[in-house]
Amino acid sequence: MIWTDEQIEMLATLWKEGKSASEIATFIGCDISRNAIIGKAHRLGLSGRPSPIKKKKDVKAATLFVLTERMCKWPFGDPKKPDFHFCGKAVDVMMTYCPEHRAMAYTPSKKPIAVLK
Predict the structure, then answer these.
(1) Where residue 29 falls among pLDDT bands split at 50, 70, 90?
(2) Is CB count within 10 Å lower at the N or C end of the chain?
């Protein structure tokens, strides 16, 4: 594909405005693909920018539908209520709860252990 000066200028302007590659491709037209926009921006050395996709930094609460084996399963609230959720923090391999909730769930026995001789 041969880029015109006009298209390059439009690409640079829209890129700096934070438009997505798909939006830029649609705006420029001429059957330019999203990948062509990304490649040209890279070759032009246009600065990186934050992803338009918002990532969750920390899982605050997990519902049953998003809970995985690597998430704390400590329940919060009444299971019959819509705000019921699980802790959702990261857990060690083969563990059910995060360190904080594991300390609450598994308390050491106060009875002395009988030693067999």
Answers:
(1) confident
(2) C
CA distance 21 to 28: 10
d(CA 52, CA 18): 8
In this predicted model, what pLDDT tens digit does every residue of 85-113 receive, in sequence order?
999 898 988 888 999 998 888 877 777 77
> Residue 85 in 3-state DSSP?
strand
Contacts for 10 with CB less than 8 Å, ≥ 6 apart: 24, 27, 28
What is the pTM for the complete model shown?
Answer: 0.43
CA dist list (Å): 74 to 58, 70, 98: 16, 12, 8
